């Protein structure tokens, strides 16, 4: 296992981003950006694997999480403010560009980085949430809902109904998570059981009507769910951090669809750098298999690789080895300059005629 070091970068006056780093300081830089709800430590399987082969691997606690600034200030969590934080993080490494890997809202942030500062992106990896969707506000993803599963008359916001719940009743939405933060963390990191038919509407499509998890008064307690997909020490660190910050700040990412659209919508979104999208075939909320959610990324990226892993939304929790293998192969094949020693080492191969 890699030795993880802790770092802080201060920016925009009094904001702080805390991040974990592993691997040689002069190794190729790869940044792992988590989504909702996670912290930097949840990328530990990736930090260990990439540091072991010579990368400088970094995973921040995103604003609103862990040891980073987690104020109840809504403006802190729009994409413009988050990109400002990512530029401060990058500057603190002493580099001008990196391979960016994002999951969930982390994909939204890395997508915004690619739109606003394409010169800082050696390659872009999106997991579960494709580039050119969520960072563009409602218009970036709502038109892509599969209306055969979610007829507009009955499911106006499709499987994204829960996002509208945040906009309409934010404090009530957060109160439910905070009533048992550790229990909820355990429930969402529990290995998924057999999932419902892909053509059956998911619970997230009826949150405004029925409440979270079809109306449970509070999250399941830790005793009610099986073991976490995360190693025990990683889960305990993550859950402890979520209990400390609560869910208000991390969930405020959902309150800026209009503002995010204004920030990113008028910018050039064609991406020439190598890009990778990792599908979770069992992810029924960020459904990229039976909906058109992947189409904008296909249209925007001139060099796109896709990989599909037999997992649900938290792909890198559930199948870390498979995710790492896909990432390694993508970098070797599409961004060889970012593979440790690839260009500096003498490497020859002789084929025998026998």
From TrEMBL:
A biological-process GO annotation: monocarboxylic acid biosynthetic process
Keywords: Hydrolase
AB hydrolase-1 domain sequence ranges: 28-140
SUPFAM superfamilies: alpha/beta-Hydrolases (SSF53474)
Name the record gives this protein: Epoxide hydrolase
Organism, as annotated: Penicillium atrosanguineum
Family: Belongs to the AB hydrolase superfamily. Epoxide hydrolase family.
Gene3D superfamilies: alpha/beta hydrolase
Entry-linked Pfam families: Abhydrolase_1
Gene Ontology MF term list: hydrolase activity
């Amino acid at each position: 296992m890699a030795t993880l070091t802790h770092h802080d970068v201060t920016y925009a006056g009094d904001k702080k981003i805390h991040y974990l780093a592993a691997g040689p300081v002069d190794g190729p830089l790869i940044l792992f950006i988590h989504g909702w709800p996670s912290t930097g430590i949840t990328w530990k399987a990736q930090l260990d694997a990439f540091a072991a082969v010579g990368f400088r691997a970094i995973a921040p606690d995103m604003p609103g999480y862990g040891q980073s600034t987690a104020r109840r200030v809504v403006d802190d969590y729009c994409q413009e403010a988050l990109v400002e934080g990512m530029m401060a993080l990058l500057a603190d490494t002493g580099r001008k560009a990196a391979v960016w890997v994002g999951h969930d809202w982390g994909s939204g942030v890395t997508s915004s980085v690619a739109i606003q500062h394409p010169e800082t992106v050696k390659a872009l990896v999106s997991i579960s949430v494709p580039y050119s969707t969520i960072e563009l506000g409602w218009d970036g993803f709502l038109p892509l809902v599969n209306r055969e599963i979610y007829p507009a008359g009955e499911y106006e916001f499709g499987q994204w109904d829960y996002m509208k719940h945040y906009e309409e009743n934010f404090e009530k939405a957060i109160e439910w998570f905070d009533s048992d933060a550790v229990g909820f963390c355990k429930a969402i990191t529990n290995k998924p059981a057999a999932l419902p038919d892909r053509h059956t509407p998911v619970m997230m499509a009826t949150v405004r009507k029925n409440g979270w998890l079809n109306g449970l008064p509070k999250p399941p307690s830790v005793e009610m769910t099986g073991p976490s997909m995360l190693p025990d020490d990683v889960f305990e660190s993550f859950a402890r951090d979520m209990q400390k910050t609560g869910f208000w700040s991390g969930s405020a990412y959902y309150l800026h669809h209009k503002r995010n659209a204004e920030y990113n919508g008028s910018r050039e979104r064609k991406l020439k750098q190598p890009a990778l999208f990792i599908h979770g075939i069992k992810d029924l909320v960020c459904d990229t298999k039976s909906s058109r959610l992947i189409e904008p990324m296909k249209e925007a990226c001139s060099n796109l690789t896709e990989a599909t892993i037999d997992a649900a939304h938290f792909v890198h929790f559930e199948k870390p080895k498979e995710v790492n293998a896909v990432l390694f192969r993508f970098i070797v094949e599409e961004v060889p300059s970012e593979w440790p020693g690839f260009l500096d080492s003498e490497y020859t191969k002789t084929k025998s005629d026998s």
